[in-house]
């Protein structure tokens, strides 16, 4: 099993420092420390939750493969909330719950999900990653603003229908912290074919990858090693059993925690067999298909 320190402990503290605004309290840090080191602790930096596979852009090299969905779909809010609730009922601290698409601001039941996640006290921050092509409605903005700790992150690739300045202005007006992440280049994830890498090589790549620590992704009742693993499995390109944890399976709290900790410290992911990130081949970010 990979090191708990590298895969869970360190990224959790890093994410904590990033999402908690202002000066961090001594007791907050101590609480996090205890919830990382106590026996059978389940604390992790990020749970990305897919709401929809619809997107308002069509990025040719989307790491999450959204343009590959010939029949995109929205996941019913009831299902999303039930899965989040199951996961969080066996969690000590989820530092960031990230609501993602596709594009989350075109998800029709977003308000229902935001209302639903308000009650979870073990989530330290609720974040929304958006391409800023859609400005959320007033009702949605008010709901986001009402969350205890929230953040909107704009992935800005300079595509012409993106409106990052407008969204930032709106966020400011509603008191919602908003960060703009400008990317000129992406690392090319390559095609969808299996590269037949050795387990050792998969381990090296998984270990190095940012996504393997900060993009564990919840989709249709399963938590995946990264967002690409979730989409590859959902689209039928790989089997996904090695790279996922079925949160809907019946288990006691003790069993859930034990098995989930194993999942958090996987040695490698099969998904890296379908990905070239480790090569760091730079390509222009957000190039659009027709
Ligand atoms: S498939 Fe592997 S290398 Fe690619 S994003 Fe996922 S963890 Fe990273």
What's the short story on this structure?
Helix content is 36%, strand content 18%. By secondary structure, it is α/β, with parallel strands linked by helices. It has a single domain, classed as TIM Barrel.
Rg, rounded, reads 18 Å
Q: What is the topology, as strand order, of the major beta sheet?
A: 5-4-3-2-1-7-8-9
Bound small molecules, by name, code or SMILES, are: iron/sulfur cluster
CATH names the topology as: TIM Barrel
Task: Pick out its properties.
globular, alpha/beta, binds iron/sulfur cluster, single chain, 10 helices, 18% strand, TIM Barrel, two-stranded antiparallel sheet, eight-stranded mixed sheet, 290 residues
Account of the protein in words:
There is one protein chain. This protein is of the alpha/beta class and about 290 residues long. The chain has a single domain, classed as TIM Barrel, CATH 3.20.20. Helix content is about 35%, strand content about 20%. An 8-stranded mixed β-sheet has the order 5-4-3-2-1-7-8-9, sandwiched between helices. Strands 6-10 form a two-stranded antiparallel ribbon. The longest helix has 16 residues, at about 5-20. The protein is globular and about 45 Å long. The mean pLDDT is about 95. It binds iron/sulfur cluster (SF4). Iron/sulfur cluster (SF4) binds near residues 205, 272 and 277.
